[in-house]
Each structure stands twice: as structure tokens, then as C-alpha cells.
Amino acid sequence: MRMYDLILKKRNGDELTKEEIDFIVNGYVRGEIPDYQVSAFLMAVYFKGMTKEEISNLTLSFVHSGDVADLSSIEGIKVDKHSTGGVGDKISLIIIPLVASLGIPVAKMSGRGLGHTGGTIDKLESIVGFRTELDSNEFIHNVNTYKMAIVGQTANLTPADKKIYALRDVTATVDSIPLIASSIMSKKIASGSDAIVLDVKVGSGAFMKNLEDAEELAKTMVDIGKSLNRKTIAVLTNMDQPLGHEVGNANEIKEVIDVLSNKGAEDETTIALTIASHMAVLGGAYDDFDSAFNALKAKIESGDAIDKFKEFIRIQGGNPEIVDHPELLPQAKNHIEIKAPSSGYITSIDAESIGISAMHLGAGRRTKEDQIDFAAGITLTKKIGDQVDAGDTICILHTNLEDIDEARHVAQSAFSISEEKPEPVKYIYKIIQ
Ligand code: URA
Questions:
Q1: Domain that residue 400 falls in
Q2: Can you give the pLDDT at residue 118?
Q3: Closest ligand 1 atom to 174 CA
Q4: Is a pLDDT exceeding 90 seen at residue 398?
Q5: What is the pLDDT of residue 229?
Q6: Residues 154 and 138 in one domain
Q7: Considering the domain boundaries, does residue 113 fall inside one?
Q8: Vertex 321, ends 277 and 246: CA angle to 5°?
Q9: pLDDT of residue 87
């Protein structure tokens, strides 16, 4: 087989076989096919797309390029969830104890963040002592005993995807639906789950800026899941403003505590309950969405959900007292209030700008080597639809840095205010299954 012929085949819009896809992926990982040929191939995929069969085969090729977790010694149906990424997205941290409180096993493998704020693993590490590097025995023991555990992604999970993603990043081929879908689904499948709930974010702060593209991505990922015998559902959710009120790391943990204690923001609580309910149905605990939703809501109202979060922190080595005393979480020295420049209604809050501002405050990484300041972040005191008077505080920047002009400017310009009241925000757009 020659790489040249495969580039030509894809460039002409023809379908590649499983053997041909494996040849490209394995040859690239082994260093036998150069960057320039794989770049040309990726660009051909960008313009010509891939068939369902090709996308499944590409996903499988990524999966088998590295370690595949064996969760067969965990009893029950293991349901995972994945978000395509948003600003202030702490839903994974809410659903772990919430779904586990129903007795459904949640065996979660998560990543660190590169960009606006930390990933789920970074956020948890803002709790002093919290360990995210469990060996597989402890991980499986915790899921069997407590129904929940989280671990950082192993370095050898889907190495082919890692190498190809890095090439996509510098060849303008990231935003190709077949490539995004196979990249995401390969990591979920290699993590060993039986069923997957996908939270596909749509809006200014998301990869997918409009509903049509988000729906196509969701359908593509659901098709991959089905073709590889994983029950898969996608929930399309709004990311036109950051989720909840907190964007950062330690302050997001504080907000997780609020949601699990029945004091959460409406958008976050609704989305978390919706995703958790689909997980409960896929996990076989309930026959229908409504019964699962009511049962999970009751877990929050009764205090069981927050007790489970305390247990989650304790079994992974953190101090559960932070739940009753969030002031024990890292706190920033400086708190800068941003004021509304005029009176009216908040009509939009550009999520990406809020994320970038949080990164300037120290909450995220610009490069892999950067250290996150867990105390840094932003509290949104107003959200879309809120009425403000000129001079009201619209958000608060938390930081240990002194020079924050850029962060202040970006945060201020993220808000739009108009005299006209905007339409109420829709949190959930659609379910694809
Ligand atoms: N997230 C991933 O893991 N891969 C992509 O290609 C895009 C988002």
C-alpha cells in the first residue's frame, strides 16, 4: 500500500477500507508516514468527509493504538458522560456523586485542561489532598464499593489521536466533524464504558457555534457509539453564556457544592439532572427519563447527593470539610468588581471571552507547562435576562496577580446590555439517540 494512493483516493472522494485506514494511522504513529502526507490526507478528509463506516474504522484504529481499560470486573452497566467543552462546565463533577447515589457505577476517566480554565481533573485538585492518580485496583475497588471513582487519563490512551490532533491543530483541520467525532469517541471507548451520554455544547463558548453543526456532530458520535455496540445518547445544550455563575477551578468546586445542596443555578441544575437522568436510564436503573429525573431530584433535595460528594472527596484523599466550609478552598488575594456601563437587560455574555479573561487571571494554561492558580476565576453576578442599573456589579474577577488590565478589559467587553428584554434562554435544545 502507498500513502500517495490513499491520499488520492480520499481526495477524489472515494471510500477507504478498514485496512487502508489502519495503514495510515499505524504508519503515522510508528513514524513511517511523514507529517506532510498525513496533513494532506487530513485536508482531503476536511473537504470530502467520511462515510459512517470510515468514521467507525478511524475511531477503532485510534482506540487500538494504545491502552484499552478493562472494566469487566466492575458490576453493572458502566455509563460515562462526555462534554464537548464549555466555559464554567462543571457538570461531570455534579453527576459523579449524583448518579452514584442511585447505585449506578460511575467509572470516570478525565483530562486536564489546556485553555481557558482547568479540566475536571485540575478542578478536583484544587481540593487539597485529592488524588487523581489511582492504580487500576483502587479505581475498580472504589467503583465496586462506593459506585464512583475518577482517574486522570493515562498517557497511553489513544496515542494516535493525540499525535493526529496535534497535526490538525497546525493544519487548520480541527473543525472537521468526522475528525472531531472519531477523536472524542475513541477516548470514550478506550476508557472502557458500556454506554455514553454526550453533552454537545452549542453557542458562542463552544466548538459548535450553531445548532445545525452541533446536531451533525451529535448524530455522527451517536452513530459511532451504536456501530461499536455502545448505547449512546447526545444532549444538545446551550453554551451562549458560561454555565452557572462560577468560572475557574476552586470556585467551580464551590458551585458544585451549591448544586448538590439544592442551591444551584437553574441552568446548571437542569442540565446536570437531564444528563444524569439519561445516564440512569442507560445504566438500567429506570425505564423512563421522568422517573429517573424525579429520583435524582429527590436525591438532591434529601441531602443524599451532597453526602455522596463528601464521600467521593474522602475516598480519594481530599478533605470533605470543604463541603461545609468552602472557605477552606484556595482563595485569591484580589477581588475586582466589573460594573455595568449602562442600565438595561443583559442580552449576551460571550462565554469564550469570559474563559479567556479567566485564563489571564491565572485560572487556565496557555501552554502544557503552565501552572494553574486554583484560586483564580470569575464570578458572574448577572446572567442573560437580568436587569441592571449603570454601576451595578456584573462580575467579580478573583486573582493573585496585580496586572490584570487585559483580563478586566476582556471581561467587561463580554457583556452586552440593551434596553430590550431578551427571550428566555433555552438550556436544552434537543436529544439525539
Ligand atoms: N475534543 C477532542 O477530544 N477532539 C477533538 O477533535 C475536538 C474536541
A1: 330-418
A2: 75
A3: 6
A4: yes
A5: 94
A6: yes
A7: yes
A8: 55
A9: 93
The verdict on residue 69 lying in a domain is: no
Do 243 and 339 belong together in one domain? no
Ligand 1 surroundings by CB, under 6 angstroms:
165, 179-180, 183-184
pLDDT tens-digit series, residues 87-115: 999 999 999 999 999 999 999 988 776 66
Q: Which of 262, 295, 284 is nearest to 78 (CA)?
A: 284
Q: Based on the fold, state whether residues 15 and 112 are members of the same structural domain.
A: no
253 CA to centre of ligand 1 in angstroms: 24
Cα 387 to ligand 1 centre (Å): 37
Mean of the pLDDT values across residues 384-413? 97
Q: Which ipTM was obtained for this model?
A: 0.96
Question: 183 CA to middle of ligand 1, Å?
Answer: 5
Q: Which three cell numbers stand for residue 161?
A: 489521536
Angstrom distances, CA of residue 295 to CA of 261, 288, 301: 15, 11, 10
pTM of structure: 0.93
Are 168 and 299 contained in the same domain? Answer: yes
Question: Mean of the pLDDT values across residues 4-31?
Answer: 98
Q: Indicate the top mutation candidate among 58, 184, 191 to test ligand 1's pocket, ranked by most ligand atoms within 8 A of CB.
A: 184
Mark whether 157 and 261 lie in a shared domain. Answer: yes
Residue 399 C-alpha cell reads as: 486573582
> Ligand 1, residues 120, 174, 177: which to mutate, most atoms within 8 A of Cβ?
174
Atom of ligand 1 at shortest range from CA of 179: 6
Give the integer Cα–Cα distance in Å for 277 and 77.
Answer: 14
Using DSSP's 3-state secondary structure scheme, residue 147 falls into coil
Name the residue at shortest CA distance from atom 6 of ligand 1: 180
